[in-house]
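Researcher: Here's the sequence for the chain we discussed earlier.
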Amino acid sequence: MIVPSQSQALDHLADRLAAQRTALPSAAIPFQLPESAAVDRQLREVGHLIVETSTSFQSWITTEPPSESNARAASAFAAATDNLGQVVSALGSIASMNAYFARTEVFRERPDVAASRKTALRVLDLAVSNAQEELDEAIGNLRAESGAITRLAEISRLDAALTRTTVAGPATSHALPPAQAAAPTSTARKSR
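Model: Thanks. This is the structure I predict for it:
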């Protein structure tokens, strides 16, 4: 089966987003602060993905001739761009919380700072959870659209094959040529 290029592009992006999801800090308790360098790297990688998805959207939406599969691919890339924007926001919150923890580290024993840091941990956990949910949604949508586009291509190929068969007729016809079919033949004997 030939897979349409739109499906391949969507599946490839879904795989890349799955890798980004794996790279997110763990939301497991006890929560460990992510390394600032890792958060920075992931912010840059997701930023590059946003550029790529918006470029892919533009490419598929302007492809001529327009088709349902191109429109579906463009829509999926646009939705993924939106999800990735939310991931960047969540990663920004994670980076901000990392900065807060670094800034308040020397005061962590003070009761007011300790309470604030506890709240910041919940914010950090929520940000990680939001990023995971956005990536899960994007991956699910991309896979669903990829499958839909593949089914559209299969239906189109079947329709084209049926059209060729209907127009051309069966490949091996056993019908008599028109002249022979029109000539009456009688094998019955006339009786007197």
